[in-house]
Specification:
By secondary structure, the protein is of the alpha+beta class. Helices cover about 35% and strands about 10% of the residues. It binds calcium ion (3 copies). One calcium ion (CA) binds next to helix 9.
Length: about 550
């Protein structure tokens, strides 16, 4: 639909009080951000009965949105219900909700979003409701691209690489990005097995003997296995030459290719398969042979990497889809080496520990994944290595808390990269892993503030998860959502979020120059409003971790 430019500019930043739009968690800390000067606040029932009052915090400036804000701490309110939060001396008020489980629905929907993005697979009405659609991209006849030839597989050889998830708003599938995503979803299950083990996600595999979060993750893992050449090396991606148009999957018919094997993709694959083999060995009767297949695939990829230690991905001239190129693969070596060491007892790659900078994980910075694997397998490395990893991990986790404590908005984010919301989610993930290690409430409370940022306590006023909140992304950069003729976007997806990295995607949209405000809910805005599997995975982890840590049992269906 054509929209005149003036309509595209409507992104009112008018919320004077920012609150989490799916509610506050009754048992834990509750912070609102106030954007107009005031001294105190009060909370009343919907019948105007005064229930609680408090002083606002000191006004602080957040450089990323260039505004002065004050915090209202209403943690003393613990009874679930609907309330009004009002500022004394001004007419400003906002409805708030306190519930036992404000994030459980998000946790389930965020996994279900992966089901909606399944490639080569239909979304049936029984599971997908209004967003049912036909299967697209069978990927049973994928061509070997000239960049990917090997002795047994000349250019044009046909391979079968069906399944897996569409990576993001596009219809392609990338090994590097799949790896961190699969790891993160596995980690969610491994740290909270009771929580995820009993959660019915209403997917085709619900009701079998395997936890649904694992069923969904295996849908992509099995595709990854098809991306390994007979020599052990792993193709970078399964893709069309250029991005396809904004059409439904079944209407997209461009030829698909596997592209250049390289060390980063093969290391990420080795790490993911090694990790999978350890986890899936607990499900040998439900998944006969799969743990062993993953183990063999991991070793074959690892062996290939040792023979081909520094092949970086170079995007071929005729390929225009996501590059996911990475010029520093020391962290990939560390992650893969760690996962291989855990399953074999072989030497741990501790020489790399001093060379890496551990920070918030991203698709090209996977060192922290190796650290977490060490920390959750205390018997598998010697004590010295374990202690060193713990020190490095806690140093960064504490650093995140220090930033949040000093920040005007109560989060740790102090940079706005492409996909800034996923950095918030991954910082929450790191905090919840720290919390699982030491039960220090500072980490839980800070992770809750991260989750509340994503559900509305941020300068844009958006709850960034589709289908949740009063003000939520409606026009995500996602081909199915854009072409399905349904007003509401496919639910459960985390929009990438504000940043100022790219301004050219929506020429007609007015974008703030302030990084924390620079977001537009427009389909054209791939730089702020796309969705991606590696962004949804930490949302799954964080929302489920907090639900689980707060002692919330999933609803029985
Ligand atoms: Ca299941
Ligand atoms: Ca890297
Ligand atoms: Ca739609």
């Amino acid at each position: 639909m054509f929209l005149p430019a003036f309509l595209l500019t409507i992104q009112a930043q008018e919320e004077k009080i920012l609150v989490p739009q799916t509610g506050y968690l009754a048992s834990q800390n509750k912070i609102a951000v106030v954007r107009v000067p005031a001294d105190s606040f009060y909370v009343s029932g919907m019948n105007d009965q005064l229930l609680y009052r408090g002083k606002l915090g000191k006004a602080e400036t957040w450089a990323f949105s260039n505004e002065k804000v004050q915090l209202a701490d209403l943690s003393g309110m613990t009874v679930p219900g609907d309330y009004l939060l009002s500022l004394a001396g001004s007419g400003e008020r906002r409805r708030i909700q306190i519930t036992a489980d404000p994030y459980g629905g998000i946790a389930s929907a965020a996994v279900k979003a992966f089901y909606y993005n399944r490639c080569s697979y239909p979304v049936l009405p029984k599971f997908g409701g209004r967003w049912a659609r036909k299967a697209g991209h069978p990927d049973t006849e994928v061509l070997v691209h000239s960049s990917a030839v090997s002795p047994g597989r000349p250019e044009g050889t046909l391979l079968s690489c069906p399944g897996g998830w569409y990576d993001a708003g596009d219809y392609n599938k990338y090994i590097v990005n799949s790896s961190i995503t699969v790891y993160t979803l596995f980690l969610a299950y491994e740290l909270y097995p009771d929580y995820w083990g009993s959660r019915d996600l209403n997917i085709p595999e619900s009701g079998n003997r395997l936890p649904d979060i694992l069923d969904e993750t295996l849908f992509n893992l099995r595709w990854m296995l098809t991306m390994q050449d007979t020599d052990g090396g792993v193709y970078h991606k399964c893709t069309t030459k250029q991005f396809e148009g904004f059409v439904m999957p079944e209407e997209a018919h461009e030829k698909r290719y596997v592209i250049q094997k390289n060390t980063a993709a093969s290391l990420d694959f080795a790490a993911t398969m090694a990790h999978a083999s350890a986890l899936l060995s607990n499900f040998k009767s439900e998944l006969p042979g799969l743990a062993d297949s993953c183990r063999r695939a991991a070793f074959a990829a690892w062996t290939w990497c040792k023979a081909n230690p520094d092949i970086l991905y170079e995007q071929p001239g005729d390929i225009g889809t996501g590059a996911y190129g990475d010029r520093d693969i020391r962290d990939e070596w560390f992650w893969a080496g760690t996962e291989i060491a855990v399953i074999t007892g072989s030497a741990f790659p501790d020489s790399l520990l001093d060379k890496l900078t551990f920070k918030t994980p991203t698709w090209d910075n996977v060192g922290p994944l190796g650290l977490i694997t060490v920390l959750k397998n205390p018997g598998k490395t010697d004590e010295k290595v374990y202690n060193k990893c713990q020190l490095l991990y806690m140093k960064y986790a504490n650093h995140l808390i220090d930033i949040a404590v000093q920040s005007a908005y109560p989060v740790s984010l102090d940079y706005f990269a492409w996909g800034s919301n996923s950095d918030v989610a991954n910082q929450g993930l790191l905090k919840m892993v720290a919390y699982s290690l030491n039960r220090d409430d500072r980490f839980l409370h800070s992770a809750i503030n991260d989750m509340n940022y994503l559900t509305g306590v941020n300068p844009t006023g958006y709850c960034f998860i589709t289908g949740f909140g009063e003000k939520s992304p409606m026009r995500i950069h996602h081909r199915q959502s854009a072409s399905d003729m349904i007003t509401e976007p496919v639910p459960g997806f985390l929009a990438g979020g504000p940043n100022t990295v790219v301004f050219t995607d929506c020429p007609d949209a007015k974008r703030s120059k302030l990084p924390a405000m620079s977001y537009v809910d427009e389909e054209c805005s791939y730089s702020t409003n796309e969705i991606a599997i590696n962004w949804n995975a930490p949302l799954v982890f964080l929302s489920g971790a907090i639900s689980s840590a707060a002692g919330i049992k999933p609803e029985i269906k």
